From TrEMBL:
Gene Ontology terms describing biological process: base-excision repair
Pfam families for the chain: Fapy_DNA_glyco, H2TH, zf-FPG_IleRS
Occurrences of domain FPG-type (ranges): 235-269
Protein name, UniProt field: Fpg/Nei family DNA glycosylase
Organism field: Epidermidibacterium keratini
């Protein structure tokens, strides 16, 4: 799933390559991805791309005051092309959801792999008209230590779940929360509002270091290389069974019905392995 660093990099890419270009045509290939009808998508045709921004994990393309807002969900992606095919795509075939043609022949495709579709595209007058943006908590990179403490003060759930709840903190998903917790040497199952002062210090530092580093590595990359760049920077996420780069212990995993997360028992849980059962805290 694209998270804060990758969406920031995509916004940077569009600012570099799309701003100043006119939208010549939009081809809708997956009606299910289109979440708004007023303004219509055709209202973007003939208008200029004037900016690109990010709200949490939402990508916001400013088109002369209208906003093309994109949420890539778990398996969505933006694929840039210097020369798009001129023939309209056939709806309902393949991963393509939307194609945006610019006046110089370049543009981008929004695609989504797999059968479970979650990619969402909106055309709105104000980004806050998108329900997911209206509900966002503060951006993860905007929080210093004291602000983070305030955000967590009334969060009694597990720390892993809190970090990935976009209503609490915007921008962090499954992968970077694994990396942040590993850097901070904190258990994913710690209670969010019961961290000590030292643990809060470590968590705030980890969020800043991990996300800032990931943004630095991602921005300037072409869209086609961002996924590989993200994987290459991971120390624990998706590395089940491999040695921890800090202590050498074997990276462990907790699996749920539709996702999993990884952690180091030595670095994060005092050598104890977390149970895969949702209601258990630690194996006895």
């Amino acid at each position: 799933m694209p998270e804060l660093p990758e969406v920031e990099a995509l916004a940077h890419h569009l600012r570099e390559y799309a701003v100043g270009r006119v939208i010549a045509r939009l081809d809708v290939a997956a009606i299910s991805a289109i979440k708004t009808f007023d303004p219509p998508f055709t209202a973007l045709q003939g208008l200029s791309v004037t900016g690109a921004d990010r709200h949490g994990k939402f990508l916001d393309v400013d088109v002369d005051g209208l906003h093309l807002v994109i949420h890539l969900a778990r398996a969505g992606w933006l694929r840039w092309s210097d020369e798009l095919p001129k023939a309209p795509p056939k709806p309902g075939r393949g991963p393509l959801a939307l194609r945006v043609h610019l006046d110089d022949g370049s543009g981008f495709d929004l695609t989504e792999a797999g059968t479970k579709k979650g990619l969402a595209v909106y055309v709105v007058r104000d980004p806050r008209d998108v329900p997911g943006i209206a509900r966002l908590g503060p951006d993860a990179l905007s929080l210093d230590r004291d602000a983070l403490a305030g955000v967590l003060a009334d969060q009694g759930g597990r720390l892993k779940n809190t970090l990935t709840d976009q209503r609490v903190i915007a921008g962090i998903g499954n992968a970077y929360s694994d990396e942040i917790l590993h850097y901070a040497k904190l258990s994913p199952f710690k209670t969010a509002n019961k961290l000590t002062d030292d643990e809060l210090d470590r968590l705030a530092e980890a969020m800043n270091v991990i996300l800032t580093d990931a943004v630095g590595r991602s921005v300037g990359q072409k869209a086609a290389t961002l996924k590989a760049e993200k994987r290459s920077g991971m120390r624990v996420h998706a590395r089940t069974g491999m040695p921890c780069p800090v202590c050498g212990d074997t990276i462990a995993e907790v699996s749920f019905a539709d996702k999993s997360f990884q952690y180091c028992p030595t670095c994060q849980t005092g050598g104890k392995r977390l149970s895969d059962r949702r209601m258990d805290r630690l194996l006895k």
